[in-house]
Amino acid sequence: MNVLDMSVGVAGGGLMGCGIATKLALAGVAVQVHDNASGAQDRVRGTCAAVLAELIDAQAITRAQADAAEACIHFAPSLNALAGTSLVIEAIVESLPAKQALYAELERCVPASTCIASSTSGFMPTLLGERMQRPQRFLVAHFWNPPHLIPLVEVVPGPYTEPEVLHDTVECLRQAGCEPVLLAKALPGFIGNRIQFAVLREALHLLREGVADADTIDRVMVHSLGRRYRWFGPLTGADAGGLHTFLQISEHLMPELAKDEEVLDLLRAHVERGEKGRSTGRGIHEWDTGREAQYLKARRRMLD
Ligand SMILES: NC(=O)c1ccc[n+]([C@@H]2O[C@H](COP(=O)([O-])OP(=O)(O)OC[C@H]3O[C@@H](n4cnc5c(N)ncnc54)[C@H](O)[C@@H]3O)[C@@H](O)[C@H]2O)c1
């Protein structure tokens, strides 16, 4: 199979849907993006253009490459317009009933051979696909934000997913310039989010305990584990450090680590005050122009 011969659908043209569509379009894949919100067509065009502009600014692509990618992205006014696609990546809101309702509608619109892949951040494929007519064509393809800067896609089978569907999706993503990894089985949060949220829980715990301020906690990560994890993962790190030493440290440290959900109160308090983070100008950090510029500069370095 050649991804360039395929037409791919993306259902949900928000942050992730537009990022995924643009990533695929940059590889020359024809993408149909459907979003049911009013004014979605202009918003999708604007979001995809902003992704391309960031890549041009970073000199990662040329204007001509951006124009070619833009020409590969088409807005689908209804799910029926995805009828000619062989793979549909679902990227709508993280709501189980909304996703299940979309799959029911999608299955009526696309051929029986079309694969449907959810970009869910952590719902189990068993739950997502429980009401599907063709769960054997369903799987999870968990992209990372922003997809044009982070190549990883966790490909997660459901209980009925055919091996051919897994193989074809992995192949298609690889050809489109992504870094797909195939999981042997599903667990909520898959791999990446389980690790990300274990780290977040501990970081919030340290903040709550007053061990250091938020900037210091972030700096510790960036200048130590961040550097290391760019090149090798935690298991290689443990091997390199010596498992006998890691065992000794684990024996006294692991019982001390945060294990409960108390830190959720800290997140909840911010959200209740309308402090959602970067998008509202205030979250755990204050997002003034200096922090915004610093963040954009750092984000660009992910392309190095
Ligand atoms: N934001 C992240 O960091 C991130 C990372 C990885 C995965 N995800 C997952 O990707 C999915 C999308 O997240 P997002 O951040 O892009 O959300 P988002 O809110 O930016 O976008 C969701 C889009 O889906 C559209 N939509 C909602 N219901 C629809 C329907 N029935 N039909 C068509 N369009 C519909 C909305 O209009 C909106 O544009 C979620 O499952 C999320 O958990 C998010």
Structural description of this entry:
The protein has two domains: 3-182, NAD(P)-binding Rossmann-like Domain (Rossmann fold); 192-272, Orthogonal Bundle (N-(1-d-carboxylethyl)-l-norvaline Dehydrogenase, domain 2), CATH 1.10.1040.10. With 304 residues, it is of the alpha/beta class. It contains 13 helices and eight strands. Strands 3-2-1-4-5-6-7-8 form an eight-stranded mixed sheet. It is globular. Nicotinamide-adenine-dinucleotide (NAD) is lined by residues 11-17, 34-37, 40, 91-94, 98, 102, 119-121, 143-145.
CA-based gyration radius: 21 Å
Task: Give the full name of the CATH homologous superfamily of the largest domain.
Answer: NAD(P)-binding Rossmann-like Domain
Question: Mean pLDDT, rounded to whole units?
Answer: 96
- Count of DSSP strands: 8
Please state how the strands of the largest beta sheet are arranged side by side.
3-2-1-4-5-6-7-8
CATH class division of the largest domain: Alpha Beta
User: In CATH terms, what is the architecture of the largest domain?
Assistant: 3-Layer(aba) Sandwich
Please name the CATH topology of the largest domain. Answer: Rossmann fold
- Helix and strand string, N-terminal first? EHEHHEEHEHEEHEHHHHHHH
Point out poorly predicted stretches.
Answer: none
The bound ligands are:
nicotinamide-adenine-dinucleotide
Helix content: 40-55%
- Tell me about the largest β-sheet: 8 strands, mixed
Counting structural domains, the number is 2
Number of helices: 13
Shape by Cα distribution: globular
Report the structural category.
Answer: alpha/beta
Strand content: 5-15%
Note the gap between the termini.
Answer: 31 Å
